[in-house]
Amino acid sequence: MSTIKTYPQDQLAAQPIGCRSREAATLTLTRAGEEGRIRAHDRNAEVHTRYRQGLDDTPYAATIDTLRRMVANLGGDGDLP
Predict the structure, then answer these.
(1) Residue 30 CB partners (closer than 8 Å, separation 6+)
(2) Which residues of the chain have pLDDT under 50?
(3) What is the predicted pLDDT for the residue at 70?
(4) Residue 9: helix, strand or coil by DSSP?
(5) How crowded is residue 61: how many other Cβ atoms within 10 Å of its Cβ?
(6) What is the DSSP code string of 16-77?
(7) I want to staple 24 with a disulfide (CB 3.0 to 4.6 A). Which of 13, 15, 20, 45 is the partner?
(8) Cβ neighbours of residue 13 closer than 8 Å, sequence gap 6 or more
(9) pLDDT in the model for residue 40
(10) What is the distance between the alpha carbons of residues 71 and 56, in angstroms, rounded to a whole number?
(11) Is pTM beyond 0.70 here?
């Protein structure tokens, strides 16, 4: 069984699904892709807002943490924020 990093509940609740670290995003940017990245960011923010409607932070963060642990139990990288 792999060990995964534990993140604070408020950090898990605030982070949209599929979010990468700033460092990883910086490595993949190109000038031509900047506009597309901005559009994708805006769409992702809208989707994040819509699917979080009516969901309290505590149960949402617990669900994300549970899913991360399930991924780790199956041999995946459950340490993704």
Answers:
(1) none
(2) none
(3) 92
(4) helix
(5) 20
(6) PTT---HHHHHHH--TTTHHHHHHHHHHHHHHHHHHTTT--HHHHHHHHHHHHHHHHHTTS-
(7) 20
(8) 57, 58, 60, 61, 64
(9) 87
(10) 23
(11) no
